[in-house]
Amino acid sequence: MRIAVEHLTWGVPGKTIVQDVSLQVSDGETVGLIGPNGSGKSSLLRCIAGLRTLTAGAVRYDGVDIAAWPARERARKLAFVEQTADTDSDLRVADVVMLGRTAHRSRWRGPDAADHEIVAEALGRLDLGGLADRPWKQLSGGERQRTHLARALAQRTSGLLLDEPTNHLDVRHQLDLMELAGRTPQTVVVALHDLALAARYCDRLVLMHRGTVVADGPAEEVLTAPLLREVFDVDAEIGRDSLGHLAVGYR
Ligand SMILES: Nc1ncnc2c1ncn2[C@@H]1O[C@H](COP(=O)(O)OP(=O)(O)OP(=O)(O)O)[C@@H](O)[C@H]1O
After folding, report:
1. Is 37 in the pocket of ligand 1 (CB under 6 A)?
2. Could you tell me if 64 and 18 are in contact, meaning their C-beta atoms sit under 8 angstroms apart?
3. Could you tell me which residue ranges the ABC transporter domain spans (predicted)?
4. What residue segments make up the domains of the chain, in order of their start?
5. Which of 53, 111, 137, 238 is exposed most, by the fewest CB atoms within 10 A?
6. C-alpha 39 – ligand 1 centre gap (Å)
7. Nearest CA to ligand 1 atom 8
8. In angstroms, rounded to a whole number, what is the distance separating the alpha carbons of residues 11 and 26?
């Protein structure tokens, strides 16, 4: 699925939070959204997910403006894992993941064998097979995060928006998750704070600052010392680690 963001502006009364952002994401591409705290990454993701009424501009999935789409139709196209995704209930892990199937079923039909198969597969991909029957409330932060990611996979959408998906995960699960985000045939936009992880797994990086896009391109072009100084106010040194991956050091 292609995602097009055209001159998007959004804000609250008295404050513009995302200003005139344009962004094209090709089918199957993984784009990393980076930028300091408060630069507008989560707000932009919510606008792309169709959860905000835009002040100006448009979001299109495969060329179609989503402004008038009902939530159910958007949920069939695009799954969104928010940073503070929570589930306030007594559900088991497998039940939470089954919520990802909701948009694909009529309201009067319960889950069928195909739904259970898709949920089992999503649990397996996030290394949650052993936790399927555990109550959600008993999970650790990282396990909850992986459960929400499994729910998003179970949605079987062609687009995936992830807001800081690695922030509670241990190193192994961070790498697994980013490998999955980088390799899936889905179109992915992922907000990340770890610049090296973003550089390694994303096809392209988009750098936000004060609600606007200040750089958009391959990691080598976006992660430069002058840009990082301007946007993050840090003295950075960009190099390669012994494995050949882009590495960012700070003075
Ligand atoms: N509904 C809202 N009402 C008022 N201000 C808001 C609202 N949503 C976001 N903001 C403000 O807009 C700015 C951008 O917030 P946003 O969460 O999009 O940033 P972010 O880049 O995702 O930050 P972080 O890296 O800390 O998650 C912040 O200053 C935030 O306080």
Report:
1. yes
2. no
3. 3-235
4. 3-83+158-250
5. 53
6. 7
7. 43
8. 26
Span from the CA of 18 to the centroid of ligand 1 (angstroms):
9
* Distance from Cα 84 to the centre of ligand 1, integer Å: 13
Which of 184, 155, 190 has its CA nearest to residue 45? Answer: 190
Q: Taking the complete model, does pTM exceed 0.90, yes or no?
A: yes
At the topology level of CATH, where does 3-83+158-250 sit? Rossmann fold (3.40.50)
Three-class secondary structure of residue 116 per DSSP: helix
Confidence of residue 85 (pLDDT cuts 50, 70, 90): low
- Give the tokens for residue 216: 């958009």
The residues, any chain, with a CB within 8 Å of residue 137's CB and separated by 6 or more, are 90
Q: What is the ipTM of this complex?
A: 0.97
Q: How far apart are the first and last CA of the chain?
A: 41
In contact, 119 and 101? CB cutoff 8 Å: yes
* DSSP β-bridge partners for residue 239: 247
Q: What is the CA angle 93-141-92, rounded to 5?
A: 15
Task: Say how many CA atoms lie within 13 Å of 20 toward its Cβ.
Answer: 1
